[in-house]
Amino acid sequence: xxxxxxxxxxxGAYETGAHEHxxxxxxxxxxxxxxxxxEQTGRTTSVVDRQFVLVPPQWSHSSSSLTASQGHVAFYVDxxxxxxALRDLSGDANRLLRLPTLGIxxxxxxxxxxxxxxxxxxxxxxxxxxxxQITQTDHLLLLECLAISLSQPxxxxxxxxxxxxxxxxxxxxxxNGNLDQANSLDExxxxxxxxxRHLTRLFAxxxxxxxxxxxxxxxxxxxxxxxxxxxxSVLEIANSVGLESPSHLAHLFRRAHGCAPDEFRRQAQx
Length: 270
Description:
The protein is of the alpha+beta class. It is built from ten helices and nine strands.
């Protein structure tokens, strides 16, 4: 029986043309934004971290990164191993659950933690052979994805048809995971396949904030936590939250807290 094959990909210029696999494919983004296209229907969807894509064998699809930085892990599962995993999931060797179909689903907290575990096990170690742990973790990741895909409706549909609240949640999730990037409104709108005007309207309707105000709120919260709980310099903190200079961070802090970042840190230490 063939094992599950998996590969980490962190190439910002990632792009594949229309193709298909003999195996099932699972693609789980870690960070950044991916475009996934179902070539058989022509439908395109933006996929963010905390989601995953499942593609059956012989199903034509393409994908590409929509951001300067992206990372994902792809799993390739032989159909025979998929049947084995479905029996394992059912808990009955004589009961075979239905094969999963094409779709995109929200990842669960256990799936996220398993992915972190896999990444930790995959780090080179000259003294420990972790191949057995990696194989076991891959199997658990597959079972968790199957449990989700067989029990929940797929999110796979055109981004322009997605319900406004769901799309705004995806934008928020993306911004939270890519705060160090200088995300412009035009880039965000293009990445999610909607107009700038439509994105602005939906975001304000569902959050009560403009995209810029939400970004600044996120940056202030993240910067405040870093000031309180790390020894990073103000310059390092500014860069880590997507600001071009310490003076920009200082301007936002004075407007929100009435003091500069260094003073904010000193006051918290007393």
